[in-house]
Amino acid sequence: QSCGGEMSIVWRPSNPLTLTGNYGFTHSEFLEYNDGSGIDYSGNNVPYVPTHTINLDGAYSWRIKDCMSLTLGIGYNGTGKIYWTEDNSACQAFYSQFNTRLALHTNKFTLTIWGKNLTNKKFNTFYFISAGRGYEQHCKPAQIGADLNINF
Question: 90-113 burial string, b = 16+ CB within 10 Å, else e?
Answer without folding.
Answer: bbbeebebbbebebebeeeeeebe
